[in-house]
Design goal:
356 residues; Udp-n-acetylmuramoylalanyl-d-glutamate--2,6- Diaminopimelate Ligase, Chain: A, domain 1; LpxD; lipid metabolism; 3 helices; ten-stranded parallel beta sheet; alpha/beta; Trimer_LpxA-like_sf
Amino acid sequence: MQRSSFFPPHEGFPLIRLAEIIGAVLSDESFGEIMVFSLSPIQRAVKGDISYVVSRKFLDKIEMCKASAIICSSDVMPFIPRHIPCLLSDNPDLAFAVAGSLLYPKAMRLQPVSGLKEGISPRAFVEKDVKLEKDIIIEPMATIGSGVEIGSGTYIGPGSVVGSGVKIGRNCSIGANVSIFSSFIGNDVILHAGARIGSDGFGYARSASKIHKIVQIGRVIIQDKVEIGANSTIDRGTMDDTIIGEGTKIDNQVQIGHNVHIGMKCIIISLVGIAGSTRIGDNVLIAGQCGIVGHINIGDGVQIAAKSGVVRDLPAGKKYGGFPARPIGEHLRDMASILSQSNKRYQEKMKEDNGQ
């Protein structure tokens, strides 16, 4: 596979310096002046690349590896060819993440599409009373409404719409075709292409003759260092606020309903739906395709397995799975029992069909 031209290699780090920055130990300091410029998987790595091995099950192609170094744990190092220096870390995932941010700094933030280096494109529309700090980029076809405030170092991508009165903090990256209404955005926030922030919450009341819309006059509050994936949607509150806590990371195509409060440093993976007024604590992990009903509480540190359906409060610090979501051990035992019974019935049916 040809090298990507989208993210060119770095000018390089000597291994001894890179190890120091990422908190790793170089396996042999005689390799300290070897330069690395880019990341690459084991099977494609060449001289100047650094690769990453998280466990022994990924070592099937290691003998063919031509990388200049490998990030791994001390448990994996004995299986690495001796001519390849190792950067040893107790947390290889974190070491790899930090190395990537150093070698590819431009990949850590959205980059201008039009080639605009600074300022406002003449093809953008910006109301006269907008307050802009320095070093802002606003791309073509973006629309910035009345009373908006945008902090220094923030980038607004092409075709994005920032509604009246919205406040966006410093060093934010707002991707292409994002819409933001009735929202306050903190510092160092990333909103990927197509994200919809602050649209109407889904609220209706029935009568005998029709369905009546319930007014949605709340806000969305996104705190510092939040990242929200492409085409995810976060509804504004009915009368209260929808809040996304500091450092939380949200994948693509996630729906968050009105008045939801999500704590700090949560991870929410794609295709999750969270209904209105649910409260989620800090450091919660919600795996893909989970559905969460409204008006419940999920405690700090909870982990929810993929495709789970959460219909009641979940106490802090535990793992849950299944539908309805229950403690993960109970869920796995139930699944094993169902599979065993299904297999037994299948075998009985096969015997019947064969006339036994």
